[in-house]
């Protein structure tokens, strides 16, 4: 079976710049999402500094939105523990995403690989995995794409906090389709045949099924695992 | 311009939880030998994860969402451009919602 062969893992400035550029199409849409979060944080009573720190330190849009739903002014130990567990549950997919980076990042020194993982988010991971599939080996690509995402996530949060309620309804201008459309643009070139048909089909069916049965975001991880196993155990012939 | 202690604690707890998740998957894979089979599963993971993220929202989506996703598939398939796929999806979704709410 032909296996994509990769040159040894590198970490260069040129690769970082390439990842940064590749991420640009998504930045305007991402910025509007960040503004929506900033505005919501303002409504929940977070100060500008708190909201900006929130996005800078946590850098996980879905978890931040979910946490904000139950945000409170007074944090008991129990509430903090619940928040930690909720965050880990919502972001369980990050465990899988980081696992998939192992073959690529393993040769790097630990400070580089774990440092890069701090920038792990859905969009830059998806983009970097496509780059990897197409034969890329420069870890800088992941870092560049992650850094620009992080930067605009923080700036957008602050901007949204300042602007407050004046943000257009994301649905009306089609902002809510930006991330799904970006994912589709990343998926399409990865389609090679039988293995994708099985893996993606199983992932979709399981995720949809689970989303009707279990509350929360378990459908992502369960659907992804089922699809990866189904795809990985499908042998091309 | 201020930050309250409880809020900072809550944000720190969330930051620790996300860092833990990000590091855990990478660390745990140290213990898993990367056999050809494991590599194929890992190779299949990105596509499966994106599909799992997308599918439930797509089946629950309104006409605008469906139109946007179809536009993204077509543009990505034939023009092979991320930016054009995103723009086409936004335009399609906004247009459908405007003319056919």
Secondary structure topology:
The complex is a heterodimer of chains A (237) and B (101).
Chain A: H1 13-23, H2 27-43, H3 48-58, H4 61-69, H5 77-90, H6 92-100, H7 102-105, H8 110-117, H9 122-133, H10 140-163, H11 178-187, H12 194-213, H13 218-232
Helix pairs in contact in A: 1-10, 2-4, 2-10, 3-10, 4-5, 9-10, 9-11, 12-13
Chain B: H1 5-28, H2 36-60, H3 63-78, H4 82-99
Provide the low-confidence segments of chain A as ranges. Answer: none
Number of helices of chain A: 13
Helix/strand order of chain B, N-terminal first: HHHH
Structural class of chain B: mainly alpha
Distance between the termini of chain B: 42 Å
Number of DSSP strand runs of chain A = 0
Number of helices of chain B: 4
Assembly type of the chains comes to: heterodimer
State the major sheet of chain A: none
Gyration radius over CA of chain A:
19 Å
Name the beta content range of chain B.
under 5%
- Share of helix among residues of chain A? 55-70%
On the 0-100 scale, what is the average pLDDT of chain B?
Answer: 92
- Which strand-content bin applies to the residues of chain A? under 5%
Query: How many structural domains are formed by the residues of chain A?
Result: 2
Terminal-residue CA separation of chain A: 9 Å
State the helical fraction of chain B: over 70%
Which word captures the global form of chain B?
flat
Written as H for each helix and E for each strand, in order along the chain, the element string of chain A is HHHHHHHHHHHHH
* CA-based gyration radius of chain B: 20 Å
């Amino acid at each position: 079976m032909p296996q994509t062969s990769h040159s040894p893992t590198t970490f260069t400035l040129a690769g970082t710049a390439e990842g940064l550029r590749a991420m640009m199409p998504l930045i305007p849409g991402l910025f509007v999402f960040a503004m929506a979060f900033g505005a919501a944080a303002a409504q929940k009573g977070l100060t500008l500094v708190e909201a900006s720190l929130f996005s800078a330190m946590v850098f996980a849009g879905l978890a931040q939105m979910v946490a904000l739903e139950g945000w409170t002014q007074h944090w008991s130990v129990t509430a903090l523990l619940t928040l930690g567990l909720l965050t880990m549950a919502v972001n369980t997919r990050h465990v899988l995403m980081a696992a998939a980076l192992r073959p690529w990042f393993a040769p790097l020194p630990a400070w580089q690989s774990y440092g890069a993982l701090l920038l792990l988010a859905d969009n830059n991971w998806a983009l970097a995995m496509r780059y990897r599939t197409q034969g890329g080996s420069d870890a800088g690509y992941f870092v560049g794409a992650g850094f620009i995402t992080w930067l605009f996530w923080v700036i957008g949060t602050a901007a949204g906090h300042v602007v407050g309620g004046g943000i257009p309804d994301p649905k009306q201008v089609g902002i809510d389709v930006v991330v799904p459309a970006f994912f589709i643009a990343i998926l399409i070139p990865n389609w090679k045949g039988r293995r994708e048909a099985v893996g993606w089909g199983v992932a979709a069916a399981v995720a949809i099924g689970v989303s009707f049965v279990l509350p929360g975001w378990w459908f992502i991880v369960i659907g992804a695992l089922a699809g990866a196993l189904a795809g990985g155990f499908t042998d091309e012939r | 311009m201020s930050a309250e202690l409880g809020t900072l604690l809550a944000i720190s707890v969330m930051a620790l939880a996300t860092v833990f998740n990000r590091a855990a998957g990478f660390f745990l894979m140290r213990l898993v030998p990367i056999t050809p089979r494991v590599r194929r599963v890992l190779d299949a993971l990105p596509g499966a994860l994106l599909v799992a993220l997308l599918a439930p929202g797509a089946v629950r989506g309104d006409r605008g969402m469906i139109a946007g996703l179809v536009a993204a598939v077509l543009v990505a398939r034939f023009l092979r451009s991320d930016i054009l796929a995103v723009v086409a999806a936004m335009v399609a979704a906004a247009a459908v919602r405007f003319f056919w709410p």
